[in-house]
Amino acid sequence: MSIATPVLSSTRRALRPLIAALAVGSFIAGASVPAAARGPDGIADVAEKVIDSVVNISTTSTVEAKNSGEGGGNRGATPQLPPGSPFEEFFEDFFKNRGGRGGEKGGGMQPRKTNSLGSGFIIDASGFVVTNNHVIDGADEITVIMNDGTKIKAELIGVDKKTDLALLKFTPVKPVTAVKFGDSDKLRLGEWVIAIGNPFSLGGSVTAGIVSARNREINNGPFDSYIQTDASINRGNSGGPLFNLDGEVVGVNTLIISPTGGSIGLGFAVPSKTVAGVIEQLREYKEVRRGWLGVRIQPVTDEIAESLNIKPARGALIAGVDDKGPAKPAGLEPGDVVVKFDGKDVKEPKDLSRIVAGTAVGKAVDVQIIRKGKEETKKVTLGRMEDDKPVQASLKAAPEAEKPATQKALGLDLTALSKDLRTKYKIKDSVKGVVVTGVDSGSDAAEKRLAAGDVIVEVAQEAVTNAADVKKRIDAVKKDGKKSVLMLVSNGEGELRFVALSLQ
User: Strands 241-243 and 192-197: what pairing?
Assistant: First the structure.
């Protein structure tokens, strides 16, 4: 003990400068953790500035109750319990009281009112409010609840189900605070954002986080391109604003991904660039009028890009052109690759879909395409997208026909189209080409989901009418040193798509 003590003291004296430095470092690090956890100091200032513009949305809906049948009273709505169960009488009395008519013969539960709560925000001092469509969908009454508790009835101006947005209007009883849209395109990954809303009906709540991702596609709709954030968003936050640190709305909080129903840091907001355009149209027309090009598009894979001499792979490949659409008279054709639309770059098909939808109906725009390796520009006047799709009539099964002679190429059994084959595979008379009657299971064609009944319309952008044409075009492409061959394929209904098959 006595020997160890001087040695310990000597060591401490020698290490004193290092210990002091570590202590200072620990203090600084310890001070920085809470600072990082609470985010920038400006969050409180932003929240104080915009909190009165955020409102709660209360809706009331009438739900029709189902009757269990004559003499059943309300028993159809009660839990199914074993006869004589001690809870049987309790539940029966409970549901009778809710039904109003009890167990009278022919009686049933009366229609009842249900309430739900969401969020919204004021964009105009005259009382316009933005929220989600799913917050007010099916509502009989809509009430806007201000931050000070004032309740005011609101009317529905219009909705857009494709982006899940709705516009409401109420008459303010006193001056209100309105907020402006910011530019969501300028958001950076890691940038701080603030969500304000009505989670779990608790009233105005402020949470903060960062932008985790932009242009996030989660297959929730035709135009989904969400801002992903780890700011806490829960049930009731739907329709509420996502602010940047300038107090501008950069998104509308719309949904979360969660196995529990609570926030796990995966919240998604519709970007303000989308919201502003939709709301502008709802204010003017009470509906959304989207541009329509009249084409079917697909991605440009590396194989397709190699076949079309496009470097690097980019754009939206036109697989089909609507005979009644704007693209047809403008000269757009299957096989064209759109790389720029109205001055905006098209990197992939979803870019083209969003740009076209956001372009004014009737506007004449320049469409830059690549056709057979060369760039061209076409002028297109956009039509209006129609929501209704024609219902295809069902076709009866056709009898088996005698199997004609076939030729093989790239794992495909190819046969000239005949009346019997059209009947067997339900192929319309307007579809021209060479029919696939079989596919080798281990071939690239099978991996690309070609199947019996598909029709090869073009090979290497040249029309084919028989199996010999197909083989001839394939051999020509091989001689050119290509690694794959591009085929235009139709289904029986005439819907086209491009498929690049490996030649190796």
Answer: antiparallel
